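Lab notebook, design round three. We kept the backbone fixed and only want residue identities now. Task for the bench partner: fill in a sequence for the structure below.
Input structure tokens:
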């Protein structure tokens, strides 16, 4: 749909692109690449992330990631994720899209289906209910799902933790079967919604992965501009 038609239909004018995938697959690295690619095409871009993206939503992120002694109930975790998302949408994402900027976000609701649904085993129906409540009609126009075998991602992550001398957050402390379920949930969503979700093989050199991402962007951006 062109931007004019979108405006007439009452939909946001900018485009909403998300990057998804398990830990260590290269989302943060490639978010900046996607932003640079779009800016090189003259598009105004807002780069952001979830959970987080505004000061209050970043405070909720801290609650979600910190490995405190008191366990975090899975329902509380789910509600915190959506509380952060509601704030992020209201303060940052919707205003940007409304003025015609494009938004590139490191993780969004697919992560909730993958982590809280696949990983924690919460019902997908309940997640979908909250999705409708918080987002109404707003879903990403394009999702780049970076996918690779768990062992490669784990090696990259271990190297980064070693280099940065940081410790594992609450999610990174989960066991391998948790991440297997997360990956399967992501792949199932990509299969259900194969137009919106482009699965990128992220097991390759950075150059190779970015060439794969550029191919998808070339195709979609041409349709939208
Ligand atoms: N979470 C949730 O549960 N529910 C939700 O709804 C949402 C989130 C939105 C925080 O997310 C946690 O929130 C997340 C799920 C949960 N927890 N986990 N796990 P996050 O995105 O901040 O956390 P993360 O996935 O752990 O991000 P990450 O560790 O920063 O991974 P990444 O962004 O995918 O990877 P990266 O930092 O870009 O790359 C990792 C390393 O590999 C780094 O040293 C790179 O330089 C290197 N790299 C990247 N690409 C390559 C290639 N191609 N070759 C070689 N090396 C590479």
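Proposed sequence:
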């Amino acid at each position: 749909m062109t931007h004019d038609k979108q405006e007439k239909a009452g939909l946001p004018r900018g485009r909403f692109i998300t990057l998804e995938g398990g830990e260590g697959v290269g989302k943060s690295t490639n978010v900046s690449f996607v932003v640079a690619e779009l800016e090189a095409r003259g598009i105004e871009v807002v780069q952001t992330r979830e959970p987080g993206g505004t000061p209050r939503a970043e405070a909720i992120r801290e609650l979600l990631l910190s490995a405190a002694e008191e366990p975090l109930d899975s329902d509380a975790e789910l509600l915190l994720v959506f509380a952060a998302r509601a704030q992020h949408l209201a303060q940052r994402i919707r205003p940007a899209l409304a003025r015609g900027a494009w938004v590139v976000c490191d993780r969004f609701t697919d992560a909730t289906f993958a982590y809280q649904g696949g990983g924690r085993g919460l019902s997908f129906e309940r997640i979908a209910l909250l999705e409708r409540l918080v987002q109404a009609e707003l879903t990403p126009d394009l999702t780049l799902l970076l996918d690779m075998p768990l062992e490669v991602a784990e090696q990259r992550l271990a190297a980064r933790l070693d280099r940065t001398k940081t410790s594992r957050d609450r999610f990174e402390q989960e066991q391998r079967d948790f991440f297997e379920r997360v990956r399967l949930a992501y792949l199932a969503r990509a299969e259900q919604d194969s137009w919106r979700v482009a699965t990128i093989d992220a097991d390759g050199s950075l150059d190779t992965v970015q060439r794969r991402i550029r191919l998808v962007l070339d195709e979609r951006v041409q349709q939208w501009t």
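Keep this in mind before ordering anything: The mean pLDDT is 93.
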